[in-house]
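User: I need a structural model of NUDIX hydrolase from Candidatus Protofrankia datiscae for a docking pre-check later this week. Nothing fancy, just the predicted structure tokens so I can convert them on my end. Input:
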Amino acid sequence: MLENNDATSHQAARPLPRPGRDASWAVDPTIAVDPTVADLERPAAAGGPYGLGGPASDAIPVLSARMLFISGERVLIANRRGRSWFYLPGGNVEPGESVEAALRRTIREKAGLATHALDFVGCVEHTFVESGQSWHEINVVFAAALPAFAQIGSREEAIDISSVSVSTLHTFEFRPTYLRTAILRWLRTHRPSWYGPDGLPRTTAGPH
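Assistant: Understood. Predicted structure tokens for NUDIX hydrolase:
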């Protein structure tokens, strides 16, 4: 997938929130009322190029590794200048490369950040059409605490990476389509999920 926002924050990182240990995420009213989280059992409408339906038979498969960086109650999101939608920093997995190695490489190349301990957020399946070509993308998403005193920014001229409040995520259009749902659900529950093209989560085994 090809790769404004409120002011950038340089808060020091804190440990990632865990269910029952950090109630501030669970009671956030914005997260509770976000329609993509509050109505997770409602099937998505059929049709449309962005995650609404199965992949076309001629779709090219792509595997991508994405990072959810967390600092306090803020997260990092990326945007290609001139586009209205946002995504998580990261990039495609190269042939012969592991997902974790690709994640660390692309985050270092594109944001100049090192990644350490990782938590598995889940996978988001995404189908789209670009320049007449159908693509079937699997986004493998991990989370990590943003290093203290990290310099937030992009090393690519056409891309912006910014820190935004979790309470404002409902105002952004994301691609893959159900990425926002996956982020907000994981922040509330810390239970990894798989999101298919219909947008419904298939929860995987995880901490309770």
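Before docking, keep this in mind: The first strand starts at residue 60 and ends at 71.
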